Amino acid sequence: MPRSASPAVSQAVAILRHLSRHPEPVPAAAVARDLGLPRSTAYKLLSLLADEGLVTHLPEERRYGLGVGVFELGSAYPRQAGLARVSRPVLARLVDETTHNVHLAVLHGRDVLYVLEERAPGRPMLVTDVGVRLPSQVTASGLAMLAALPAAQVRALFPDRDAFVTRRGTGPRSLTALRSELAAVRTRGFALEDGTVTEGLASVAAAVVDHGGHPVASVAITYPRHVEASVQPLADAARRAAQELTRRLGGHRKEHP
Known about the structure:
Elements (H helix, E strand, L loop, with lengths): L6 H14 L7 H8 L3 H13 L3 E4 L4 E4 L1 H13 L2 H16 L2 E8 L2 E8 L14 E3 L4 H7 L4 H7 L17 H14 L2 E4 L6 E9 L5 E10 L7 H17 L9
Antiparallel strand pairs: 1-2, 3-4, 3-8, 4-5, 6-7, 7-8
């Protein structure tokens, strides 16, 4: 940290960096010990960081991990660095390859925010237009990114049943149901949504990840359900596009439980 930074700021940043080096949440006592901080100082800073969403407190485990706020800050970097500009030619080629509408979305809290759309000639307009937000757990785009998050971050995003919003009466209604859906996404290697967002349309999506393996966006293909005999070719195309964007952003994938 610069010499002008206050001790509290330096200590807070040190705590965030320390938590980022661990694959799982850690006890506050371990944070204090490893950083040479008084326990009272460590607890106070962890509490303040939790209030800002930068740290997640797991009271049952008496542990702390990085919060959703850190993910949102990190995912903002590639967007500001030109995520849409980097993605546009990749999505345009994907439209040419599949002849279907393609879009790019990012996580924004529990929602997905659609930031780019490439429309295929003759295909219907979608509700997932640029600037539209939808609940992440009912969209292929959102499920692809949620499946790439650590379990603790998913739990922080969906702490109780009130966090679950369905669409058209469908979608997971509990953390257990969501975890089951995300496990299926990881097993398949892509996310699938069939008629939940718009009746008669289905989507497949794959996550784009950064250098830490965290999802910064997702690539999705939306198609009329009646025109595709098999979803696998479209899923493979979405995965290839997501992998290309991951490489362009200097990212790499890592597995999450």
